[in-house]
Amino acid sequence: MPRLTLPDGTHKEFSSPPTLAQVAAAIGAGLARSALAGKVDGRLMDLESVIDADAEVAIVTAATPEGLEILRHSTSHLMAQAVKELFPTAQVTIGPAVADGFYYDFDYERPFTPEDLTAIEARMEQLVAADLPIRRQVMDREAAIERFVAMGEHYKAEIIREIPADQEISLYGQGGFVDLCRGPHAPSTGRLKAFKLMRVAGAYWRGDSANKMLQRIYGTAFADKKALAAYLTFLEEAAKRDHRRLGKEMDLFSIQDEAGGGLVLWHPMGARIRQAIEDYWKQTHREAGYEFLFTPHMANLDLWRTSGHVDFYRESMFNPMTVDEQAYQIRPMNCPFHILVYRSRIRSHKDLPFRWAELGTVYRYELSGVLHGLFRVRGFTQDDAHIFCRENQIEEEISAILELTLQTLTTFGFKDFEINLSTRPAKSVGEDAIWDKATAALKGAIAERGLTFIEDVGGGAFYGPKIDVKILDAIGRKWQCSTIQLDFNLPERFDITYIGEDGARHRPIMIHRALMGSLERFFGILIEHYAGHFPLWLAPVQAMVLTITEAHNEWAIQVRDQLRDAGLRVETDLRNQKISYKIREHAMRRTPWLLIVGEREQAEGGVSPRDRHGKELGLVPLATMRERLLEEARTRAVGQ
RNA sequence: GCCGGCAUAGCUCAACUGGCAGAGCAACGGAUUUGUAAUCCGUAGGUUUGGGGUUCGAUUCCCCAUGCCGGCUCCA
Q1: Which of A252, A422, A461, A462 is the right S-S partner for A247, CB 3.0 to 4.6 Å?
Q2: Is the CB of residue A216 inside 7 Å of nucleic acid strand B?
Q3: In angstroms, rounded to a whole number, what is the distance separating the alpha carbons of residues A14 and A26?
């Protein structure tokens, strides 16, 4: 009789082979109610599956990521059932769980409307109330194909034909609805209690624009209504932080038709922030032993032939232009120029490493439909750098880059990171030995900092392994900005070398790296991370001097000028308005410090500061406040 | 690029099924000289994204264009 080992290490014996549902019931009534599926020796299975041998068993509930995924997957089937009942001629295709919910793609004669969604959702509620059991059934391949063809479900038939022969074909049925699916699924529709259909969108069959456009319905589902409500609140919060909205409201940047989509205009207030970012960037890079380069925005197309961009990157490049009957290309990357600088003279092993950085503006062709605020643009500035080093310098260089990356991201207020390491893909250039050595160096550099990483086996570029660092923002969203990539390809293509100790020519290793990635995109992320409430060192206006009446204008201007002379960004508001009016306005504009100046302040040579949380400090001498502001700016404090 | 939705004053949004295009904020002018999140009064602001069509009449209905928004390989 099966002896089962539970996750806590305890054992349970059964007199006859139990189903997973029975196992859950044996553990506890509460668990039986919340059980969605089970895990047997690490394999997810339906609750009704029978365990007939000793095994490690865990019951899966919606409290775990796996359980939530099952719940969402089952909800997508529930939606497909509702759609088939309401629109019988719609063909089902695929419907997986995704990051924040699920979707299902249908082939239907017309697009679904928002009204359709409401109707589908209502039908789903009915199906939940009916609490239909969800049953798995294994079927012979040919019979399954015949069955789906008979039902008019040609996509499903196509999918079955492509399933490897050694895999079993399983169907899931609930009520009159049957779908091809690997499973597992929740035991019944009654378990799907909290869901919402979000939107309709077009999506190509298999994501290929050569294929037919299907109708995709996105939805989300959670364990209970409370979690669903929390998610919807999160979406509202994200919308409030939308950098496109804040960018307009705070007059930071614009993107205008007259200039072109995806081309960013930085307004004065946005440019102040960018300057603060760039100043910091220059300072840290100087300290980290980098030199700076400036290179052109376009080059003879031949350069891009040599670099391989014409062959491998054409889709992302703008069309070349003709200059004196020669083709020129606006740059999508900076690296070829840096290589030309390297190659401009003979290099010795004693010169290496070179660390060359450039805030290089590049232009890439993106489909008009994918442009999105500052996040997806056609012209952007990379905080790019290229390191040329010897093989035995890789680890040290990577380690230093990682250090600089984390220092930079931390300074901008990001505390949580996820590091991904991508290794050699099937199709790639370079010898095994160098790949192994480089990959080991990357791992070593990560380990040295005591950090953990997620390995993406075979996920590297064809020209070298890489480390990507993702940041988590204030509301838990993940963004990838930093990337550190080894390149065994470009040095080869440009045939760059250095003279070694042995007097022979050797190939240097090239490292591409960007910490913020694109300044535009990073700026967008910062806006959303801080919801526009920039820390002092980034704030476009760090302090606003507010007068009580016109009688205090003179002192207000003196205050402003003294603080400006100290290097702070300070403005005055001398308008003939009540102080509460001015405070409200500048508080809403997210100015970190408001310095109130009236009779007493003028008489004593001070200001009455109010911080961004409305805290009043009382009358303080101007010099004291100046030092406090300078300290806050100098330390790049992100607290509060 | 493709699919769907949307486009009204600088901004946020109204205008029932086709019937005189409006409000708040912002701007500007005036009064008020004010102590910690909105002082009052007034003025101006529009080819309702652009073009075409249906209609006695179009912000509203239809077609085209442009832009924006949400999506477009997270695999049964």
Answers
A1: A252
A2: yes
A3: 10
User: What CATH class has A253-295+334-529?
Assistant: alpha beta
Give A514 CA → B8 C1' in Å. Answer: 44
A620 is near strand B: CB distance < 7 Å: no
Dihedral Cα A291, A296, A302, A306, nearest 10 deg: 20
Task: Give the start-to-end residue ranges of the domains of chain A.
Answer: 3-61, 67-231, 253-295+334-529, 543-634
Distances (CA, A) of A518 to A144, A359, A481: 50, 9, 8
The catalytic residue positions of A are: 335, 364, 382, 384, 386, 466, 512
Lookup: nucleotide whose C1' is closest to A601 CA: B35
The C-alpha atoms of residue A436 and residue A337 are separated, in whole angstroms, by: 28
| Nearest nt to the A202 alpha carbon by C1' | B3
Q: Which CATH number fits domain A3-61: 3.10.20.340, 3.30.1340.10, 3.40.50.300, 3.10.20.30?
A: 3.10.20.30
Distance A503 CA to B55 C1' (A): 89
The whole-number Å distance from A118's CA to B18's C1' is 28
Identify the CA nearest to A398 among candidates A333, A336, A465: A465
> Does domain A543-634 correspond to CATH entry 3.40.50.800?
yes
Each residue's pLDDT tens digit, A55-101: 888 889 888 888 999 999 999 999 999 999 988 888 999 888 888 88
* CATH 3.30.70.1060 is right for the domain spanning A67-231: no
The structure tokens listed for A365 are 């062709």
Query: pLDDT of A314-366, one tens digit each?
Result: 888 998 999 999 999 999 999 999 999 999 999 999 999 999 999 999 999 98
- Are A581 and A607 in contact by the 8 Å Cβ rule? The answer is no
Query: Is strand B in 7 Å reach of the CB of A244?
Result: yes
CA A229, C1' B23: Å apart? 33
